Amino acid sequence: MAEIQPVRGWRYNAELSARIDDYVSPLFDVVSAKQREALYRNPLNSIHLSVPRGEDAAGEALRRLMQWQEQGILQQDALPGIYVYYQYFRLPGSSREYCRKGFMCHIRAYDWAEEVILRHENTLPAAVNDRAELLSRTRFQTSATHGLYRDDAFELERYLDEAMLDPLYQTEEDYQARATCWP
Question: Is residue 139 very low, low, confident or very high in pLDDT (cuts 50, 70, 90)?
């Protein structure tokens, strides 16, 4: 079983959080070039941390991250928590809304041979290297890493649902999905 721990998350300050849709961006591997260019126009959009530009992109992300932290644009939560994250979506041609339920936390790194965490079958080395460089330089997780876990009895779901009764954030994503989050 994978070992998880709570994390002291970093979030936009209260003033910026009130307009969270202006500052969030799709995951690094799904954001299109056209979306990127539109998001880069906002100097406080998270795209500058998750998909930084420049000759030394990871260095640029680190510089901006430190600036945002020093200026109070990003503020760290006082207490560690596990952040519940729900993503609501519809499949093309369907009126039914689905919900992908999950959470964000620290997860212990394991050697692949231990088979505690299994890698995605189509992991692209360039994407792994890019993310590893960004994480190494910034010491900051800029994009969620999706994983699946098994809970056949749905024991965890009632706690997740309880946290979502009054979500902290709710965003409308460009690709017809709605996301909610609560620590």
Answer: very high
144 DSSP 8-state letter: P
Distance of alpha carbon 143 from alpha carbon 46, whole angstroms: 9
Strand, coil or helix: 33: helix
Q: Is the pLDDT of residue 175 over 90?
A: no
Cα dihedral 15, 89, 99, 134 sign: negative
pLDDT in tens, 14-67: 999 999 989 998 888 788 899 999 999 999 999 999 999 999 999 999 999 999
| Residue 32: C-alpha distances to residues 35, 37, 178 (Å) | 5, 9, 18
Q: Both tokens of residue 106? A: 């620290």
Which amino acid, one-letter code, is at 47? Answer: I
CA dihedral 172, 19, 142, 82 (to 10 degrees): -80
Angle between helices 125-138 and 57-70 (to 10 degrees): 40
Pairing of strands 10-12, 83-90: unpaired
CA pair distance 54, 172, nearest whole angstrom: 29
pTM of the model: 0.85
